[in-house]
Write a structure and sequence with these properties.
With 580 residues, the protein is an alpha/beta fold. Helix 3 runs parallel beside helix 6, helix 4 packs parallel to helix 5 and helix 6 runs parallel beside helix 8. The N terminus is likely disordered. The strands form 6 sheets. The chain has an 8-stranded mixed beta sheet, sandwiched between helices. The chain is built from 8 helices and 28 strands. This is Peptidase S8 and S53 subtilisin kexin sedolisin.
């Protein structure tokens, strides 16, 4: 199917010349807004996979210091990459949404009518907790009694109070998961055999309950005296006779260093979904780094990465005089690695989404054949619609004016397309374009950048705090800021040199460029859990379930707070089960 037939209906952009745009990792590029000579005839195609026993070139040993292991001096160009690109056309395959009504939902909403409490009561800090517990109160009704306990972004220990009929525990991500810290329920005085388990799955089990920020699916432990523990976001439960692990740990050796996934609670959300082919992820960036032989990074999912002719190939930076190459990294390769690195394959790192199709289109650098934002967006929307897929578009870029044609596409696709866009790296008030559209459209998420436990120099930071380096870069803030995501993270990298492209991993992918794909990946999990949601609903769920930072409620510095994958997915499942 030739998608170029869609373009004649778009017309030529009204803004001529060049618009300065930013890759929000601190570098700049140009994007041509005049595409009057646009003549693409490509179609989105898939990459055929050949593995031939690829080995992981690195030993991702557990962290033994306060700083991430530097990976940028290591290259895998000596490793034979046999993920060859082919032009297998998948346009003939149509994927329908799966029907949730086919499942026999049996959630028990036995807590209906209880007063919902004030969220959150602080948990007992665990060994690795680095953030002060949130101030809150215990909400109690006369009968029965309920305790609501919310954790920090670190590892927390949750303790059952006697005389309470319902203990409700919410883990909120765990930045220390890779170092062995766990969000744990302490039942060390209880035998596991004395407890009745009611653990939720993607289709059944658990209890629907609203702790104050949206009805969600909670796991439960039931005791013979009628008391219950309701919980979410918990990594493990410690009994007198055993320890029950609940989080999902893939076998990728770099996963222990991906604190960003841990802090978002992705390891808990994976219990319910690792992504679905009902969702497509579009990346509007630089395209992918490819070798002269047509290979992409060995730790990207080549079996369901879609190409759009030569446009999906990163042209890298070039010195304009003489077109001589200079060494550079592939921004689009790093973005895709965060969202969709090949997971549980025993090499490299883990992507947030393991299964959804991904298309990486080049809209940056002003190279011949690059697309405008409007053109790339239309390619992605038309393809996703033809496949019956929901569409999450990642845009780790910004600057200049908003293309009218692009804004029109945003406005026309508020049900089926969610735009996740970097807020900007100026470190000042004001959200960059096109992320500023979040102030006008509910299917746009403007993403700011947060630290983990330390900055790139090893200086301790409160997890979730807004990144700001005096004299370098800082996360923009202001009206329209929606969510915060982690930055300065580990991802895949392609390096261009005089001779060819090589691949390795970058331990410091930074800027709101890096925060944005973290949020986009989580959004794709939410939509995978419930594809009947609209894009507006996905945005609302992510905002409602975010971990509150800064001033109580939504504020100009942190928006709705730090994205929480587990609570968001549980909220999506509750809506699928009929909850309001």
């Amino acid at each position: 199917m030739d998608l170029s037939t869609h373009f004649p209906t778009m017309g030529v952009n009204s803004v001529n010349g060049v618009t300065i745009m930013n890759r929000f990792d601190g570098s700049t590029c140009t994007a041509l807004t005049d595409r009057s000579n646009f003549t693409h005839s490509a179609a989105l195609t898939s990459i055929a996979t050949q593995t031939n026993g690829l080995q992981d070139p690195f030993n991702f040993s557990p962290r033994t210091s306060s700083s991430l292991i530097a990976l940028d001096d290591r290259s895998i160009d000596t490793i034979s990459d046999t993920n060859r690109l082919t032009s297998t056309d998948i346009m003939q395959t149509t994927t329908d949404f799966f029907g949730l009504d086919q499942f026999a939902w049996n959630y028990q909403d036995e807590l209906t009518g209880l007063a919902t409490g004030t969220f959150n009561q602080p948990a007992t800090p665990g060994l690795f907790a680095t953030r002060d517990a949130i101030d809150s109160t215990i909400a109690q009704t006369t009968q029965p009694k309920i305790q609501l306990v919310g954790g920090t972004l670190g590892a927390d220990t949750f303790t059952v109070l006697s005389g309470i009929q319902y203990n409700v525990f919410s883990g909120n991500g765990n930045v220390e998961f890779g170092r062995g810290g766990r969000d744990v329920i302490d039942l060390s005085g209880v035998l596991s055999s004395s407890v009745d388990f009611n653990l939720a799955t993607a289709t059944r089990g658990g209890i629907l309950f609203n702790p104050g920020n949206g009805t969600r699916v909670f796991d439960t432990l039931n005791f013979s005296n009628g008391s219950q523990i309701l919980f979410e976001g918990i990594d493990q439960i410690s009994f007198a006779d055993t320890t029950l692990s609940l989080s999902v740990t893939p076998n990728d050796p770099g996963f222990s260093q991906q604190w960003n996934l841990h802090m978002m609670g992705v390891q808990n959300a994976w219990r319910f979904t690792t992504g679905s082919t009902n969702v497509m992820i579009g990346i509007e960036d630089t395209g992918l780094g490819m070798t002269a032989a047509g290979n992409i990074h060995s730790d990207l999912r080549s079996d369901n990465t879609l190409l759009y002719g030569d446009n999906s190939k990163d042209d890298f930076f070039r010195n304009v005089p003489g077109e001589q190459r200079i060494q550079s990294t592939s921004h689009g390769t790093e973005v895709q690695g965060v969202i969709a690195a090949a997971s549980n394959n025993g090499i490299g790192i883990s992507g947030i989404n393991w299964n959804s199709t991904v298309a990486n289109l080049d809209v940056l650098d002003n190279n011949p054949g690059d697309l405008s934002l409007a053109q790339a967006t239309k390619v992605l929307i038309d393809y996703a619609n033809s496949q019956g897929q929901r569409l999450v578009i990642n845009m780790s870029l910004g600057g200049g004016d908003i293309e009218p044609d692009f804004e029109q596409l945003v406005a026309q696709n508020q049900s089926n397309a969610l735009f996740v866009i970097a807020a900007g790296n100026d470190g000042q008030y004001g959200i960059s374009n096109p992320a500023s559209l979040a102030s006008r459209y509910a299917n746009v998420i403007a993403v700011g950048a947060s630290w983990g436990t330390e900055d790139k120099n090893g200086i301790p930071k409160a997890p979730g705090s807004r990144i700001s380096y005096p004299g370098w870069w800082g996360s923009n803030y202001g009206v329209g800021l929606t969510l915060m995501g982690p930055s300065e993270v580990l991802s895949t990298r392609a390096i261009d040199s005089t001779y060819d492209v090589s691949f390795d991993f970058d331990s410091e992918f930074n800027g709101t460029s890096a925060a944005t794909p973290n949020v986009a990946g989580v959004a794709s999990l939410v939509w995978s859990a419930n594809p009947y949601l609209s894009a507006n609903q996905v945005q609302s769920i992510l905002s409602q379930t975010a971990y509150d930072l800064g001033a109580t409620g939504r504020d100009l510095v942190y928006g709705n707070g730090f994205v929480n994958a587990d609570t968001a997915v549980r909220r999506a499942l509750a809506i699928a089960a009929g909850a309001a």
